[in-house]
Design brief:
The chain is of the alpha+beta class. The chain has four helices and five strands. The longest helix has 22 residues, at 64-85. The mean pLDDT is 86.
């Protein structure tokens, strides 16, 4: 396994694990590497220091599996809350968010679909929006 520091064209930094460097290259070429913050597929590797095993004994640090489980649970809870309490507006999200922000529509919490260009335009115009955590992956479909 190899861990890459990545960033999208909107300067959102994130990390991802791949089986090999060729796995990253293949997935990036097929448009499968996506920014978890905005959904952009324009992702590139960033400079990072290699993980080199030292000779000094260190503290074990956090249990990464436990931290990952906690983060995934928090993401599921956020998504569940939004789905239960916000109005789903589908691909009309950008238009609805702008109408609410500009007072042309009654204030309500919404979620839906938007392209990276639509999200960029909303943010440039000061319309508050954020990416919804992705739906949980079906373990039977995970690689």
């Amino acid at each position: 396994m190899i861990r890459y520091a990545l960033a999208c064209d909107h300067d959102h930094p994130f990390e991802a694990w791949f089986g090999s460097s060729s796995d990253y290259d293949d997935q990036a070429a097929r448009g499968l590497v996506e920014c978890p913050f905005c959904g952009s597929h324009a992702v590139s590797k960033q400079i990072m220091a290699p993980a080199v095993a030292g000779t000094r004994k260190r503290d074990a640090g956090p249990d990464l599996a436990r931290v990952q489980t906690m983060m995934m649970q928090a993401a599921r809870e956020v998504r569940s809350h939004v789905e239960a309490n916000f109005d789903y507006v589908g691909d009309a999200f950008a238009r609805e968010a702008r109408d609410i922000h500009e007072g042309r529509s009654e204030h309500r919490e919404i979620y839906g679909e938007a392209t990276p260009a639509e999200v960029r335009a909303l943010k440039e115009d000061g319309v508050p929006c954020a990416a919804l955590p992705p739906a949980p992956v079906d373990p039977a479909k995970a690689n």
